[in-house]
Each structure stands twice: as structure tokens, then as C-alpha cells.
Design goal:
The protein has 10 helices and no strands. It has about 170 residues and is an all-alpha fold. α5 (about 65-70) crosses α10 and α8 (about 120-130) packs across α10.
């Protein structure tokens, strides 16, 4: 019975996934998932809070920090997190929450990022991590994204702690 249940679940998941993709020959190429996706263009006004306040939000307060720290190791391949850290393939991320996109002095951002107009908040980063090319088409960051909301929340909670100088960033 468990095998049959698993098979049904896989089939339903596959069908639902296929329904969210644009079909060949569609005129717009937009699916309902594309319409609902948060992007840099439809992000709107953002609430910028101190790091400690973000960390009080349930999705970050209850996040798996050990998992988050493992996930952000992927980020460390291209970014440094420490104050005064160097730009690697990507810009240094220290203090990036609350900062305007493409604002690290001396980093050669792509034209797409240079022309973008948003603030790095957990909300923006969540949408970016879900699908970087969907959030900001034309950006040159080579990263497939984190599909799981729990993984994104864990990674964001870890980044909030690792990239700021607040008291919360040193607490475990």
C-alpha cells in the first residue's frame, strides 16, 4: 500500500509540475506560476528592518541553523561574508541586508544588476534564491536556486547572522 501511495504522490507531483510550465507554442509563455512569482520588477516597497528584528520573524527564528550554515557554504564558493572581506567571483556580502543592489564599490556588476532598483531584504533574497534568473532575468549569477522554502529560510537566517555585526549574528 505504501508503494501505491508513493506512486500516486509522484504522479500527482509530476502532473502539478507540468501544469505550471509553459507549453510549446503558447503565445505568452507565461504560466500561472510565472505570474505569481516575486521578481525584482514587482517587488514593490520593502520593509527594511534591523537584523535582530528579521531574526524574530518565525520563518527565521525557527529555521534550522545547522542546515542553513551548510547551505551557505555554497555561497562561500563565490562570496566572502566578513567585514572588509574581498570580492571573489561575486561581491562581498558583509552588511548586504538593507543595502541597495549592486552597491559594493569596485565590484564589476552586470548591466542587469547595475540597473536594478531594489534593496536586499530577506524577502528579496528569498525570491532571488528560489530562482535567480526568474527574479532578475539577465543577471549573470550561475546558481540554480533553492526550491525548498525551509532551505531558503535556513540559509537566510544563517546569512543574517554571518553577514552582520549585530548581537544576534554572534548568538547561536
Amino acid at each position: 500500500m505504501i508503494g501505491l501511495y508513493s506512486l500516486i504522490l509522484i504522479l500527482l507531483t509530476t502532473l502539478l509540475s507540468a501544469c505550471g510550465k509553459s507549453q510549446p507554442g503558447s503565445e505568452t509563455g507565461n504560466s500561472s506560476r510565472d505570474i505569481d512569482r516575486l521578481t525584482a520588477a514587482n517587488l514593490g516597497e520593502q520593509l527594511v528592518l534591523p537584523t535582530d528584528d528579521y531574526l524574530r520573524l518565525p520563518q527565521y527564528r525557527n529555521a534550522d541553523l545547522v542546515r542553513g550554515e551548510r547551505l551557505v557554504m555554497q555561497c562561500r564558493a563565490c562570496h566572502s561574508f566578513e567585514q572588509g572581506g574581498q570580492n571573489i567571483i561575486g561581491p562581498n556580502l558583509h552588511g548586504f541586508f538593507g543595502r541597495r543592489v549592486a552597491s559594493v564599490v569596485g565590484y564589476p556588476y552586470s548591466p542587469t544588476l547595475s540597473q536594478a532598483d531594489f534593496i536586499w531584504t530577506p524577502q528579496a533574497l528569498d525570491a532571488w534564491l528560489a530562482e535567480p534568473t526568474g527574479f532578475l532575468p539577465g543577471n549573470r549569477m550561475v546558481y540554480g536556486g533553492l526550491r525548498s522554502a525551509d532551505d531558503r529560510h535556513a540559509a537566510i537566517a544563517a546569512l543574517l547572522r554571518l553577514t552582520t555585526n549585530s548581537n544576534a549574528s554572534t548568538q547561536r
